[in-house]
Amino acid sequence: MTVVEPRLTLERRLLKEHPIVIACDEVGRGALAGPVAVGAAVVDPALSRKRVPAGLRDSKLVPEPKRPAVAARAASWVTASAVGWASAAEIDDVGIMRALGLATIRALADLRAHGVVPEEAIVILDGNHDYITPAGARGLRVRPVIKADRDCASAAAASVIAKVARDALMTHLHDEAPDYGWARNKGYASADHRDAIDRMGLTRHHRASWSIGPTPTLF
């Protein structure tokens, strides 16, 4: 299979009309336990002329042992970056799509605290659906882009930064409930995770509103 290397083609085109580009991508959407995380990465005109870091890909295409180094290079390369979160309890309360929007709004708020003005940006959102605006965001220009995390270097950076942050959190939570194997499965529907749920039930970190049964939840 040919691996597509992400580029800055779309970002450079958008920067002709907007002062900055913010790319956002989520991780943890299909997990059974743990929060959802949304990474946000900023590209400005100066960055758009720089070379994309070696090895940068959508986080799903980066082998796990290499992800921390790739995420570190991505974070030092982009103009600014942030990760926003929505907890399992919030997912249960408002649903996964609204939770994704809340996590994105929190990532953008973190960027704002570091001097980025999201309202000046065009926001590239990986996927085909704007889940940010329905969650309460105002004044944002959101552009959903299918396979942005594969094709756009900014979205790939957001993806791997968020993935490494969420994996680190799930590894930390493993110590709280080691029988669920979160250091290995990161809260996803692995066989050992499902077996532990069958034996011991759900923790406060599980998405209790979901149908967590023998058949994997697909998102």
UniProtKB/TrEMBL annotation:
It comes from the Bacteria. Residues 19-219 form the RNase H type-2 domain. PROSITE patterns: RNASE_H_2 (PS51975). A divalent metal cation binds at residues 25-26, 126. Its cofactor is Mn(2+); Mg(2+). InterPro entries: RNase_HII, RNase_HII/HIII, RNase_HII/HIII_dom, RNaseH-like_sf, RNaseH_sf. It is an enzyme of class 3 (hydrolase). Pfam families: RNase_HII. Keywords: Cytoplasm, Endonuclease, Hydrolase, Manganese, Metal-binding, Nuclease. It catalyses: Endonucleolytic cleavage to 5'-phosphomonoester. Endonuclease that specifically degrades the RNA of RNA-DNA hybrids. Belongs to the RNase HII family. This is Ribonuclease. It comes from Microbacterium awajiense.
